[in-house]
Structure prediction request, 182 residues.
Amino acid sequence: MYCPQCGQQQLSDNVRFCSRCGFLLEGVSTVMASGGIVPIRPMQAGPKALSPRSKGVRQGAMLMLSTALIVPLLAIITVNLTGNPEFIVPLAAVVCFVGGLLRILYALIMEDANPPMDLNQASGYAQGYTPQLEGSVRPSLPPASASPVGWRARPNTAEIYQPPSITENTTRLLDKEDPGNR
Prediction:
């Protein structure tokens, strides 16, 4: 396949970008195979992904709410096993509640509010209005020429003008007979 922008021949038909100009080649082979009509890729209807911020807030809320379940269960277990719940139960209550609160604050302050983009849905193609390549469809573009179009060789300006020697100016300043030095 050849790049439609610069004409560079690609190593394989599976490359995503042109190696010379960086043109996006992701859908070029599909468009060429369909005769210039841009195919439709249906959007997949599924559950929307949550943003990292929403996930963090939910995790913090679940940790805070789990305090209502963990603390009584821990109190029952420690009373039956040790008979002394005065240290473990309050510590678990504080850790669960404050940990959930800190997780919510971290999510609100530090995490991204936008959900991650699904690459399969982002690269969907829209339907073209009319075929752009009606009639004969060429399988590929011609190979790139050795010199780009519109460029010409740079002229060698060194042979047009020879700069004066640095010693000429110094010699002229030291010359006593020069009227400019008196």
